[in-house]
Design brief:
Oligomer: homodimer
Number of domains of chain A: 2
Number of strands of chain A: 16
Number of helices of chain A: 15
Helix content of chain A: 25-40%
Largest interface: A-B, 109 and 109 residues
Radius of gyration of chain A: 28 Å
Largest sheet of chain A: 8 strands, mixed
CATH class of the largest domain in chain A: Alpha Beta
Chain lengths: 430, 430
């Protein structure tokens, strides 16, 4: 009888036990409420799609990581590896039914067969929100405001670093640079991962000396938006529309009361061929070392692989796992929200209906009640309440009274009847 | 430039657009709150598992439907086709960390490559709740109560049909039947799908004449629990423990105030080799023709493929898609819950900050506001509000006043300032 199958998950995959799952679901619910309050509506798409749909945009690295196979009908299919490509396909397919601009959010699992590292898994959640069919500065500002607002509601106030994807190309054009600006962008993208000397040497290979110092000056953190916009002005007429765009956005963020959370940072590049306008990252105010917890930018055309209709937009993506880790470190996750707050003990002999009756009477009075269903010793029942983080325990006694214990403090009290028991549970903080 | 990829989903798969997705998420949230209030906690498991884990229990039909393939590391993997097998593996794997009895719910997608029919898809949600490590009548009664309670909170009061998997085998044993009771059970399982004459002919092939009439009598709907339990009594001592078990459960359902929703129905078989105790189905009180929306039963040993520890339990599964269809037919789904209730119009020239400012001022006063971000004609903006089912529209005027329209009724009013506008929006039902 020992031919048991070893119970295990695949490498890079993991179960979510209740303590973790409750925290994750509650975080998602808080973000979701923020998105909806701004008119962003949820969508969902299949986990499995035609390989051609998902890989049409994929580069070499992505392609290697995608789970793909042949289905029962001989179709080449793949598991989605992000929420952007399915959203592009979705928008092209349902365009006629969607309001434009279309504001949506999507929270769902994606799969990538990359080598698992600390904090990186082969199955993980993404949480994206976008507005497409939108070109105005209002739409840029709205995504930034919603980042600040949703993360604040999630218990994680952020500072946002803002840039514009065309600043560097505009500087390079002014310098008479004739190569592909992407080469310089790629180098800037790696800036934080390499030594400063290596970075400068790389720039020197691509640019004349004067150009190197101008790039370095531009990437240097500016003390204020005035200073940052001043640097853009010095780049000449090329940069005038960018400067105007940023000013329009900043005026809106000021009205939204979050301008003091938004900082210029022209070293942000992100998505080398995808983004075409503003780009941004955000960091927990109390834990900036964690890295960006929400980032995104403006793109010119979401669904060009699937439709001729141009769909410009702007969006952001929350790094849910990283955010959850950060909230845990800050003690900002909910412990046990909205599960049972009272546990009713069962009689040791398992014969009595008292526990069951007590549970019903407390439920009728509005309490959230977990009743122990098996005949077990009190020690096992206390352990049950502790494992489930239930603060209150009610033990029905033979004489009709109730012993009520508050586990976090150890306080115990005997109450004569169910009314008094209910009043105690209702009145005291748990 | 016409080499566009046609935007389409795979056969048997579908997107969820906002109207539908909001209804589904809200239904799930209501069920989830009910589960949690009884102490049932959420878990999650990977979509992808070792093929050996998922198919250890699979029969021929299941095996054919499962999406499976070889991953990048040469492992045989499969997409889960239900939530029961992953739960069994989960319980065996994390046994030491789990409270016992373990009360959990799991709402997640599963995949089956079966031929799509009306209302059946290759990707769909399951919603299971179980208590394992539990043998008491309390645990049986609790699952039944939670079915009634959660579906009522979801807007769908049900009547529950209850039976016990051992009634028919016990009758057959009393009749001296020497074959495998599963043959008779399999026939009873098909009862509603075949003609009554065909059913009786099938019974006659398996049983003597007297046996046929006893089986038919047992399966006949009983007018009351007294009558149903009386029939069990007439089966003799074999059935005494079953009768006692049902009586214990009924006493608990009576205390829970839902006995009048629970009916005897000994024609229910369900899961031919899985269930070993009570089995049940439930039907919408106002739409019984829809079929069972939640069903389940008691099993002897959840995780026997993965651990030697015996884990008896009882659980139920909500047919989410069917339930949602039923709620729609009954007009019981939420239209647009908790999305924006006010839309602020943009100026046609797109130059003014008035719309943006108005949105902020309304948000600061607690309203859920969707602001139109693009310079479009009023007709397009009205259409936007209608597509998003937003009841209120606020149009900032050049003189600082606001035109407020309630779209469902067509009522319009001009308010002098933002305070009056906010008061109107707050005070009137939407």
């Amino acid at each position: 009888m020992s031919n048991l199958i070893p119970p295990q998950t695949l490498k890079g995959f993991r179960d979510s036990l209740p303590v973790q799952e409750i925290k994750r679901r509650d975080l998602m619910a808080r973000l979701e409420d923020a998105f909806r309050s701004f008119g962003y509506e949820p969508i969902d798409t299949p986990a499995l799609e035609y390989e051609e749909i998902l890989l049409g945009k994929g580069g070499g690295e992505t392609e290697k990581q995608v789970y793909r196979f042949e289905d029962h009908g001989g179709r080449r299919v793949a598991l989605r590896y992000d929420l952007t490509v399915p959203f592009a396909r979705f928008t092209a397919q349902h365009r006629e039914q969607l309001p434009l601009p279309f504001k949506r959010y999507h929270m769902a699992k994606v799969w990538r067969g990359e080598n698992p590292q600390k904090g990186r898994y082969r199955e993980f959640y993404q949480c994206d929100f976008d507005i497409v069919g939108a070109e105005s500065p209002d739409s840029d500002a709205e995504i930034l405001q919603l980042m600040a607002h949703s993360l604040k509601l999630a218990g994680a106030p952020v500072r946002i670093h803002l840039s514009h994807r065309k600043i560097l190309p505009s500087l390079l054009k002014g310098l008479g640079f004739e190569g592909d600006p992407v080469e310089v962008l790629r180098l800037v993208d790696k800036k934080d991962k390499i030594e400063q000397t290596e970075f400068e040497a790389g720039l020197s290979r691509l640019l004349p000396v004067a150009g190197v110092s101008q790039v370095l000056n531009l990437l240097d953190p500016a003390a204020s938006w005035d200073e940052a916009l001043g640097r853009l002005e010095s780049l000449g007429t090329e940069s005038a529309p960018i400067r105007q765009r940023l000013q329009d956005i900043l005026a809106r963020l000021d009205l939204a009361g979050i301008l003091d959370q938004v900082y210029p940072d022209f070293s942000i590049t992100r998505g080398l061929d995808y983004y075409t306008g503003v780009v941004f990252e955000s960091f927990l105010q109390d834990l900036s070392g964690l890295g960006s917890v929400c980032s995104g930018g403006r793109y010119d055309d979401l669904a060009q692989l699937y439709t001729k209709e141009r769909l410009p937009g702007v969006g952001a993506s929350v790094g849910l796992d990283r955010l959850l880790a950060g909230l845990e470190e800050l003690g900002q996750t909910s412990g046990n929200s909205a599960c049972a707050s009272v546990m009713v003990f069962a009689a040791e002999d398992g014969q009595s209906l008292d526990s069951w009756r007590t549970a019903q009477e407390l439920r009728r009075r509005g309490h959230r009640v977990d009743v122990f269903t098996e005949a077990k010793k009190p020690a096992a029942q206390y352990q049950y309440a502790e494992k489930k983080r239930i603060p209150w325990v009610v033990i029905p006694k033979a004489d009709g009274s109730f012993l009520v214990k508050h586990l976090p403090t150890g306080r115990a009290q005997t109450l004569a009847n169910i009314e008094a028991t209910s009043a105690l549970l209702a009145g005291m903080p748990s």
